[in-house]
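Example 3.
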Amino acid sequence: MAEYDLVVRGGEVATGFGTTRCDIGIKGGRIVALAENLADGAQVLEAGGLLVLPGGIDSHCHIEEPSRGGYVGTAGDVPVTVNEESFVTASTSAFAGGTTSVVCFVPQWKGEGILPRIADYEQRAAKGMLDYSFHQIITDPTEDVLQREVPQIVAKGIRSLKVFLTYEPLHLSDEEYLKVLVTARKNGCLVTVHCENYAAIKWRTEALLAAGLTAPKYHAWSRPPVVEREATHRAIALAELVDQPIQVFHVSCAEAAEEIARAQHRGLKVWGETCPQYLTLTAADMDRPGFGGAAFMCSPSPRTTEEHARVWEMIRRGTLDVVTSDHCGFSMGGEDGKAVSGRDAPFRDIPNGIPGLAARLPILFSEGVSKGRITLDEFVRLTATNPARLMGLAPRKGMIAVGADADLALWDPKKQVTLTNALMQHAIDYTPYEGMQVTGWPVATVRRGAVVMRDGKVQAEPGTGQFLARGPYDYI
Amino acid sequence: MAEYDLVVRGGEVATGFGTTRCDIGIKGGRIVALAENLADGAQVLEAGGLLVLPGGIDSHCHIEEPSRGGYVGTAGDVPVTVNEESFVTASTSAFAGGTTSVVCFVPQWKGEGILPRIADYEQRAAKGMLDYSFHQIITDPTEDVLQREVPQIVAKGIRSLKVFLTYEPLHLSDEEYLKVLVTARKNGCLVTVHCENYAAIKWRTEALLAAGLTAPKYHAWSRPPVVEREATHRAIALAELVDQPIQVFHVSCAEAAEEIARAQHRGLKVWGETCPQYLTLTAADMDRPGFGGAAFMCSPSPRTTEEHARVWEMIRRGTLDVVTSDHCGFSMGGEDGKAVSGRDAPFRDIPNGIPGLAARLPILFSEGVSKGRITLDEFVRLTATNPARLMGLAPRKGMIAVGADADLALWDPKKQVTLTNALMQHAIDYTPYEGMQVTGWPVATVRRGAVVMRDGKVQAEPGTGQFLARGPYDYI
Amino acid sequence: MAEYDLVVRGGEVATGFGTTRCDIGIKGGRIVALAENLADGAQVLEAGGLLVLPGGIDSHCHIEEPSRGGYVGTAGDVPVTVNEESFVTASTSAFAGGTTSVVCFVPQWKGEGILPRIADYEQRAAKGMLDYSFHQIITDPTEDVLQREVPQIVAKGIRSLKVFLTYEPLHLSDEEYLKVLVTARKNGCLVTVHCENYAAIKWRTEALLAAGLTAPKYHAWSRPPVVEREATHRAIALAELVDQPIQVFHVSCAEAAEEIARAQHRGLKVWGETCPQYLTLTAADMDRPGFGGAAFMCSPSPRTTEEHARVWEMIRRGTLDVVTSDHCGFSMGGEDGKAVSGRDAPFRDIPNGIPGLAARLPILFSEGVSKGRITLDEFVRLTATNPARLMGLAPRKGMIAVGADADLALWDPKKQVTLTNALMQHAIDYTPYEGMQVTGWPVATVRRGAVVMRDGKVQAEPGTGQFLARGPYDYI
Amino acid sequence: MAEYDLVVRGGEVATGFGTTRCDIGIKGGRIVALAENLADGAQVLEAGGLLVLPGGIDSHCHIEEPSRGGYVGTAGDVPVTVNEESFVTASTSAFAGGTTSVVCFVPQWKGEGILPRIADYEQRAAKGMLDYSFHQIITDPTEDVLQREVPQIVAKGIRSLKVFLTYEPLHLSDEEYLKVLVTARKNGCLVTVHCENYAAIKWRTEALLAAGLTAPKYHAWSRPPVVEREATHRAIALAELVDQPIQVFHVSCAEAAEEIARAQHRGLKVWGETCPQYLTLTAADMDRPGFGGAAFMCSPSPRTTEEHARVWEMIRRGTLDVVTSDHCGFSMGGEDGKAVSGRDAPFRDIPNGIPGLAARLPILFSEGVSKGRITLDEFVRLTATNPARLMGLAPRKGMIAVGADADLALWDPKKQVTLTNALMQHAIDYTPYEGMQVTGWPVATVRRGAVVMRDGKVQAEPGTGQFLARGPYDYI
Ligand SMILES: [Zn+2]
Ligand SMILES: [Zn+2]
Ligand SMILES: [Zn+2]
Ligand SMILES: [Zn+2]
Ligand SMILES: [Zn+2]
Ligand SMILES: [Zn+2]
Ligand SMILES: [Zn+2]
Ligand SMILES: [Zn+2]
């Protein structure tokens, strides 16, 4: 009997110190050997000429996420809507793009507790092929939720609480946010924060709509960088008061990142995430005829090419140390996606979010490594090691090391690909990156020792994804 | 008949460029000549050996200010309380300390408009001897107030709107603050802001009280610098969004001042004020047995001696360019002042504020000029020229120049005085500066050509103060 | 007999606090009264509709300056060259432009002492009509010069030592510069410094010439901002070591100014000067056919329009607080000026310097005040008050105040003028600002009570200028 | 025959991502396998309960370094002195402390070329047991040296040029330094720089000695942080001009490090090194009776405990990314070491330098990792991975990865040791760290698969060290 279930042979293995040419021996889903010239395993995957990277960890994506009242805050008695990306389609898309684990979001509905939502969401997530962990969204921080329910989800291994400082009806007041911070601190959780100023966006939006400026492009006008900087500083200041670590989600501009850098220099445990859209898309993309701009609408808004350069600089300085997709797809066609309020809807009534699960790694690799903006080591840390560590998934996930889960992306660094929606293999009917040229592409994906994608073809049994329970953070 | 009503002879006159030895000829309440060897006027004031400074302008003081429900937010049906410092006593105190003009506050009561409060307050103010102008406090920014009433008060020459970001029930939400900013912008007003985070202070206060930490010194614990920095950044960011100038009141610490400096470097019209208490008092002053600490309780809280040094640096850098008293006195004795909730009241229930109208100039001169921290020019700008300009009172007020009102403080720069409450000549039964040694003292005060104080003796007829109507700001 | 020799009537007088409408009474060359409606003097100058400003002080100009071996460092036995701008022509030009006092440079020749050069230069300067003071250049800091001679010139009232960190053969080594700093400190002098790195420029120049890149435009290539930043930081660091105040001359770029700002924030007595050429001319101006670019060649080199914006910002922040002309003219025609080494000379052999004595105030007023970049108060401080104070000429010079010298520029703020060389009234045959449009122009100049220019016509007797002896600095 | 020459079994292996529990299989001096449960090799080293770290790389140490005229610049005809630490004693000391490779210095003598010195030094180095590489010191950058000799040493694999900006007679002028930078750029070398201002130290030293302040402690007075900051900024600015990467050696204070941080933020390839002495020793250590202070004398001077905290912060921020020993030992006894000029010699005449080869890793581990200032990953990068990469020794050296040299330090993180000179096992008769308590200690050292130290006992054959030739830098 072969000593290994799978041997990945002859690749340039990313070890965190550049690459090493060696074979990888895998048994029972874990890496058990890194060596020169391993004997064959039951299965062999030839990696000659390829990079072997840790499978991507996308610590911020919205998959099959239920929402009461729809995604645009119409609230009221509207029934539950479920995001059209299922755990099965998301798994396929993730594997196609070299990603093997995600952290997604359990909702809370105002007026209700969090336990029922977790029960429901656990069932949904269990049907996919990806490994997964959860952020628990808190929209109604009652005493019962904070005192009774949060300790229970922590016991399950859910170790991050997500809050919104904007969006109707999700946003928390400063008082509510403080309560979440205190609860997180008591329970050893990270708090992740969507930072934009609610009142400022509301005021701007009402003024724009009152002036008849309703097209998708006005979405960007409704939320300029200053509203993101304000909320970022506030989120940090209140966390500083409570002495609670936070991660600032989807930083889109240098002035918000600068607040994070200042906090880090004060010695605070504050981290910043950004996403490919803030390195490649611009507000101008929303300025298309008719409804077309809706395809690029997400929050914070895409900015400018000058801002992209500044965000890259913040990545290089280490201020922003995680790159996720913030995958949150709504199809452009049909009546339940972007057009849920009609194709003439004012920007306020169009769901926010874009798909990016499969595109994340190729775009970051191509724009980052291939274009010389970052090193391969930095790429690996941004997309796998750092999210694993920050989310409490390391050392099991996020690196290629003996003992770690055998989650791998075999990467052809020279392969040139033109992005199309078909390549994304997701449920959404478009990609905002359609037509983009990338250099570097995942040609095989291994999840816990199983070869789940080769040359774009995904093969994995629904229900094989595992829940990743997390312990207390190193960082807290 | 003499050419001049009054000649001030032989002083070192502060002209904005150091001092010049010359006489000052005054007629009709205005300066009509600065010259060597003027002929005698009807009256002559010998100033040999003295500095002649512009009369102080205290652009932030609370005088005879009515409050519904008391100063500590007990709200409800409690009847109106009026601050014990009347315009007559305040005028006496101001003249004793070399100050000739003030800007004080017209209240607004939630659920009511602002016009009735102005009518009342105009009557009160008219009884004093000081020249005065008003900030209009906005606590309930209804459409009627903003659209109909504000234009009317602007027409009267009230050109600044004051908002609180903390204090129950005064604080505004971000939405309300944005409305005030927009209204100010439309009407050519300055907005002045008390910057502390309401929710953070509330959370801290409740936690302290729940833990039995109720003594006056815990006031400082309830509002550390970070809550001031947070609100300062937010106040600026929202003003930046609206493009509306603001003045940040009573900056107590470098980290809040740094936010102002950053805004100024972005080219914003943001100014910062500080007060003598933030240069001389500390949180430790509130740590006295029993009720004694209440005498030093104001908001923001006094900080530390290290912080004093940093605030001086921010003055020297020009980030903080106005020094006012934030005079807001409550007697320590009796039942209507500091002890309104009893002498065992928890810190939350003790009125905030300290008296400082008479002490402002001597303290700033002594700690600043006499100790070499600032120049005489800087002193004059901080206490007279800059507030006059920022409040729209220049060129009539704030400088010694031909054509300006003859408001003067004759100053003995060598005179050493030990501060006592008697010297303050105010209505309050104590001064927090009792026993402090100062070098430099006002020996005579002239208000519009009338010698209203000599050697500490104030002589002025109640009702002789004038309302100072202001035009649109230069700075807006 | 009239009480006043001259009355300037009805102008808007710049007092340091904006302007005041008043008359100015002058007697014995000094201002003795500022008043409404003065009686007529022996002479009356109507100033209705005009600004009345302090006469300009140009604390950095090269007038009739002797040089041994020419201006381009050919050294050796070459006889003495004298800059073609005499004190008479310079006085005419200065008065034409609203300037009434200058500080110019006494040379030192290597191998010789400084006293002989002063004797010669005093004679030259005494022939002009401008009031004048001297900087003493030190190029050979021998023990005799430093120990014996410097105290003698200080006793005469020469209170600033000028050093070059670049230029053959003028530049000092770090060791020599340290000796000058120490001597200045002992004697109560300011040290003024030309900051560019000698070795870096030499290396770049040799490389450019070796590559055949000899045209005037390569002057800019030979001395990029980094060589100025380097020398600025070094000049400051060594002054910091010795605790000696310095003024950094002709700052051309933000990165050098930033070093000054950093030093000021450390509490050092370091000041920065800039010049109109760094706000209006660019390196591209030197890129003209043939010899034409030589007209714009000065050191540091003009930069870019983007840099101009940054230098304005440094002025507004107060980092750069003096604007001088660095007037150092060489005619474009003839054989002794710019073309001294021939009209095909490589850039290295073309004298550095441009004329600007008359253009300084109009350009700064127009680009600064008329275009809204600075206030009138800032203009007055930059061009008169600050140089007077820093050079130890205040309170006699630099302001309009009772007791000060009656040096005035009557300014028409609305007058539009196209600059031509004829308007400059200097000895040089061109102005680099030919054709530039300005708004704001001096229509009369008064020097110690004498009307020395009206409507461009200068009338003043050679030999009427006075030497301005200076006492120890306030600032040291 | 066993598959492996050596198996290191059961340790916590530092992989760059924290640690992994695995075995290490070594063959032919290289790591060929990292795996769970490897079969035994010819030799087995049990590492249970221990950390397994990459062998330390000390990229700055002075070993058996010849000097003409002694170490204190007496120059002239004095014969050659050789540093008393031989390659054999240094190898023993290094292995005792967990270090397996060094980069040391080939001298150049003024007036001579570099090739003869290399020939001599190669012979010396070949006698040791450590692997080694060279920095070539340049003290006389003649055309012959730069044009003819440097390419020859580069061909040998010597890829770094070391320059001094201070020390008589080693220091280079700016012109000379520029020439070295240009030569390095042409030949693909790194330049490493000792940054202190020569003239400033000379001036201070002469002043101190003239004042009779000659004791060892005045060494610190002669070279305050500002002289280091000045030279650091200058070294960077000139490198920026030439676009040549540099490493700033032995940064002792935050103000010098800040210059490096600023350069990095401008995108420059500038790196900073520090040493344990700047994290633990202070100027006060030199203030001992008599000659005792000489034991702590090195340049730059040790600073203060406050400065230590700031240097740690600069390490955490990544500004300083390499920690070396700057081992440069002189015995306190005898007549050829510290006392070469007598035991009453003024500080100027005492050789600079302290021994630290064996102490470097234990001190940094204990003060850094054990006290929680840095993570284990940071420790590994600072002491092995980063110097390997910067010096062009990676991927062969500096990490534990398949294919890399099997250089290992087995580390007991809990072992508590009191440092003594005996433990240092070097030739010098003292250690400045005598008596210091450390937590964490190397219990075995492996060099290219050979166990060269166990429990403090070093066993290795002289002459087994290898020269490490380097190729062109990744970083240039
Ligand atoms: Zn979000
Ligand atoms: Zn999201
Ligand atoms: Zn307030
Ligand atoms: Zn107040
Ligand atoms: Zn110059
Ligand atoms: Zn000059
Ligand atoms: Zn060194
Ligand atoms: Zn060294």
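Chain D has a mean pLDDT of 95. The interface with chain C takes residues 173-175, 177-179, 182, 197-200, 202-204, 224, 226-227, 229-230, 233-234, 237-238, 240-241 of chain D (CB under 8 Å).
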